[in-house]
Amino acid sequence: MSDFTADNGPAKGDAKSSLFHETTRTKRRNAAEARFKAYGIAAIATGLFFLVALLVAILGNGLPAFKQTFVTIPVELTEAKLDKNGNRNPEDLAKVSTFGYKPVVTDALVAALKAESIEIPFAKEKDVEDILSASVAAQVRDTVLANPELIGETVDFRLLASSRVDGYFKGRVTREALARDKNLDAEHLDIADAMVAAGLMKTTFNADFIFGADASESRPEQAGIGVSMVGSLFMMIVVLALALPIGVAASIYLEEFAPQNKWTDLIEVNISNLAAVPSIVFGILGLAVFIQIAHLPQSAPLVGGLVLTLMTLPTIIISTRASLKAVPPSIRDAALGVGASKMQSVFHHVLPLAMPGILTGTIIGLAQALGETAPLLLIGMVGFIASNMPDGIASGFIDPNSAMPAQIYEWAKRADPAYYERAWGGIIILLVFLMTMNIIAVLLRRRFERRW
Amino acid sequence: MSFVKLTASAIAIAAVSATAASARDQVQVAGSSTVLPYASIVAEAFGENFDFPTPVVESGGSSAGLKRFCEGVGENTIDVANASRAIKSSEIEACAAAGVTDIIEVRIGYDGIVFASQLNGPAFTAFEPADIFNALGAKVLKDGELVDNTYAQWSEFNADLPAADIMAFIPGTKHGTREVFEEKVMMAGCEATGAMEAMIASGMSEDDAEDACMAVRTDGKSVDIDGDYTETLASIDANPNGIGVFGLAFYENNTDKLKTATMSGVEATTDSIASGDYPVSRPLYFYVKKAHIGVIPGLKEYAEFFISDDMAGPDGPLSEYGLVSDPELAATQAGVSAEDTMQ
Q1: Beta-sheet pairing, B28-31 with B80-83
Q2: ipTM of this predicted complex?
C-alpha cells in the first residue's frame, strides 16, 4: 500500500501543493497538534510533580517515626522497694504500682550516669528522669511481674527515651526551642550527648511502631499502629465476607436472570447513585441502624465493617456486572445449546470467566474501604481506643478498636509535635498496604483476564 | 472462593454479633477534647496498674459527649462523659427522661485558657479583657456611642498594642472553651469598656445586653474553629497577625512555635491559675453513670484512680501535662468513694 501512495502523491516540484512545502493551513494544523501534545505533557508533568512532592513530604516526615531513641542501663531491682514482704507473692507484687517503680528506674539512671562519670547539672539528681519516657516504670513493672525471680538482681533494660530527647536526635528539637519548654532543659541534651558517647543511648529501628498499641498524649515515643492495623484487618474480613457474596449474587441476578423492566431499571439507577453517596452518610446510617436500633457495641470493628460493606457494595456490583457483560453471549449460547440449564451456564461457564474482573473490583473496593475515615468518626472509632490487642477472634470483632486511617487522624490532632511525625509514619504503612492491594489487583488482571 | 465458605463465615459473624450485647469488660468514655489528653493518660496508667483492660476514650466535644451520656442506661451507652464545663440543667433533664437519673459529678482540676500568637509575630504580650472585646465584639463603644465594630487594627483602641491587623481564631460553639471565652473575656471586656451600661441605657433588657456582649463580629476578623487546637495552630502558622485561643497544656507542648500574652497583667501558669490570679480558667469535669457501677467492671476504680493524689495531685502526671490541680481534691475523692450523686 505504501508504494501505491508514494507513487501517486503530488509530483515533486509542484509549487502549489507539496508535502515538502507546508501551506499556512497545514502549518496551523501541525502547530495545533504540537500545542495539544505539549498540553498533555504539561498535564502529566504537573501530576508527576505533585506525586513526587507528596512522596518526598511523606517519606521525609514519616521515615523518622520508624526509628526511636533507646537508653540501655542496668536497673537494680531492690527487694526492699519491690517486694517488702520478701515472699514473691504475685498479689503483693502487683500492689506496687508504676509510681513505686519510677524511683527505682530513676535511681538506676543516676547510678549509670555516675558510673560513666557524666556530670548531673541539676540541684535535684531526680530531675534527670525527664530523659526517660513515662513508660519505663510500666515496662520494668511488667518484666518483674512476669519474672518475680529477677527481684534482688541487677538487670539490663532497654528503655525508651522521652519524645523530646528522641526529637533532638532526629533534628526536631533544638536547644534554643527548649529554653521556653518546661518538659525538658538544654542540660538534659548535654547529658544525652554524653550518654550517646558512652554507648548508653542509641537511636535504632523501632518495631513497636509497626506492631505496638496506641499510647496516651504524654508519651508519643511509645505509640504504635499495630492494634489499629488489627482493627482494620477485622473490618476488612467483615467487608469481604459480606460485600463479595451479596454483591456477586446481586450482579448475577441483575445481569443474567432479571427481566428488563421499570423495576430493574430503577434498581440499576439506584445502585449507581449509591456509589456516589459520600461516605459520611453511611457513617450516620451505621450509627442510627447498627448502634442505636440494633444495639451493636460502639467502636467495634464489626460495626465499622458493616458500614464499610454498605460503601463497598456498589463498587463490587458495578465491577462484577461489567465483567459479566464482557463474557461473550456465544459462551452462554453454547452452554445452553448442549443442554445446560441457565444456572449451570452461569455458574459453570460465565462466572469462572468473569472471576478475574470480579476479584480486581473487589480488591479495589477493599482498598477504598481500608483508607476510609469519615464513617468511622461517627461510630466511635476515633480517640484513645487502640490500646488493647484483641485476645481472640470474637474479641477482635466486638472489642473497641480503631482503624489505621482513624489512628492517623487521631495522631495528627494531638498536641505533642512528636505525634505529627507518627501520623506521617502511619501514612507510609497505610500506603504500603494500599499499594500492595492495587498491585495484586493489576497482576490478577494481567495474568487471568481474557479478551475476546 | 466457594460460596459455602463465604456464607458460613457470614453466619459466624452474625452469631458473634448476636452474643456481642452480652458483655462489655472495658470502661467507655467520651466527651470533651480538652479533657481527652488527661483521660488518656489516666486510662493508660489504669490499664498498666489494674487487672482491668485499658478504658476507651473518645473525643468529640463536651456537648456531644453529654448527649451520648444521656442516651440511656445499658451496656451500649457510655459510662463516663468528659466535659470542660458543668452539665446544664437541660442536659440533666434530658438524662432523666432517658432514665439516667443518678449522675456522679467529678471535678478533676482546672484548665487555663491562653491567648497565643506566632513566636516571631507582632508583640502581642499583654491583653486586657477590654482589648479582646474591642477587637472581637459585634457592637462596641466608640466615642461614647454604641456602633458596629469597625476596628481593623489593635492599635486603634489601645496604643500599647501593635499596629497589626485584627485576626482571631476562637473555638467554635460546640466547644466548652467557647463558653469560658464568652463569659470570662467578652463579658468582662464588655463591662470594663462600658458597652454593657450603654446597652442597658439604650433600652435593652439585662439578658439581651449580655447576649449582645457575647456576640462576636461576623466580618471575617474572628474565625470560629470547630476542630481541635491543632487546627488553630495551623491557622496561626499561616497568619503572622493571628491570635488563637488555646488550652494551657496545648500551649506548653508547642512553646517552640507560640508565645502567650498576659491577661490583666497576669501570666498563665499552673500556679497563677491555681491561686485564681489568672482570670481565664475553668474547671474540668467528668460525669459517671451510677447505674453502671458494679455492672461495668473497673468503672468505680477508674473514677477513683483518676482523682487519686498519684494522678491528679500537684505532682502527678496530669499536672505535669498541664492540668491545674484542684486544691479541694480530698473532698472530691471522698465524694467519689461514697458515690455521691448530683441533686
Answers
A1: parallel
A2: 0.85
